[in-house]
Amino acid sequence: MADSRCSATRNPFTHTETPAVSVAIEDLSKSFGKLEVLKHVSFQVEPGEIFVLMGPSGSGKSVLLKHIVGLELPSGGRVTVDGRDAAAAETREQIRLALVFQAGALFNSMTVYNNLALYLREHRVADEAGIREKVMRALQILSLEAAAEKYPSELSGGMKKRVAIARALVMEPQLMLYDEPTSELDPVMAATISEIIATLKDQYHVTTIVVSHDRDLALNIADRVGILMGGQLVFLGTRDELRASADPRVVDFLNPKIDLANPRFKQLET
Ligand SMILES: Nc1ncnc2c1ncn2[C@@H]1O[C@H](COP(=O)(O)OP(=O)(O)OP(=O)(O)O)[C@@H](O)[C@H]1O
Ligand SMILES: [Mg+2]
Hints:
- By secondary structure, the protein is of the alpha/beta class.
- The protein has a domain at 1-86 and 213-270: Rossmann fold (3-Layer(aba) Sandwich), CATH 3.40.50.300.
- Helices cover 33% and strands 25% of the residues.
- The protein contains 9 helices and 12 strands.
- Strand 1 (8-10) and strand 2 (17-19) form a beta hairpin.
- The protein is globular, with a radius of gyration of 19 Å.
- It starts with 7 loop residues before the first strand and ends in a 16-residue tail after the last helix.
- The structure holds adenosine-5'-triphosphate and magnesium ion (MG).
- Residues 61-62, 102, 179 line the site of magnesium ion.
């Protein structure tokens, strides 16, 4: 296992350093009743790297991510964060990890400011003045200062995604997990979010796992990429290896063609 002490997360708020963590997925299987969603998946994410997990809809990406934060338990195999069982409550006490949910999961009844302050208040991280400083710093990093007093319903999709990232950032995470951070965004905003993810990783050296369909995101910011299909890892490699892959499953996934004669297209019967 990689030595997690070899690299550190520079905390954007306290400017102290905490070690970046590794994540190990070892022979992970997961079934819901008869549905086998993950089948013997293994890979390791090194401290401070950006790992992008790709794959078609329904291939098990979000389910895998939930195992890393302990929201799902393996049917077989194990998931460890920095060598500790991801499902154990102590792990979440010892390691700060933040998940940016697929749909943002903001509280609609609260302003952006209060969405960010919530975690800090609940964990009594600082007094109100200290919380204000941390929240405004996170909003500034994501160019969202002007949105502090707005409600989520008043924001565009891209702003909501950035608020969700800012909310994760105030937790001062050692591990950042993103589920589809660029979905539903126009290509320019998607590129901006990719740049933000890469910048946060470069500046704070936080270990980053991104679940995404976004080919441009993977090819631009990933240190390594995994592709899940039918619950199995069919590709694991760097983004250069991804570009060079001749595996037809990988090529077809990255370059889908629209073919109306393809059996994927089934005419609705009346
Ligand atoms: N709690 C659950 N109970 C039963 N089945 C589930 C549960 N969670 C996920 N599944 C099933 O597991 C499969 C994989 O779901 P998952 O959400 O991981 O897909 P995904 O790869 O993230 O897809 P998308 O790209 O559309 O987000 C799907 O068939 C889904 O219906
Ligand atoms: Mg998903």
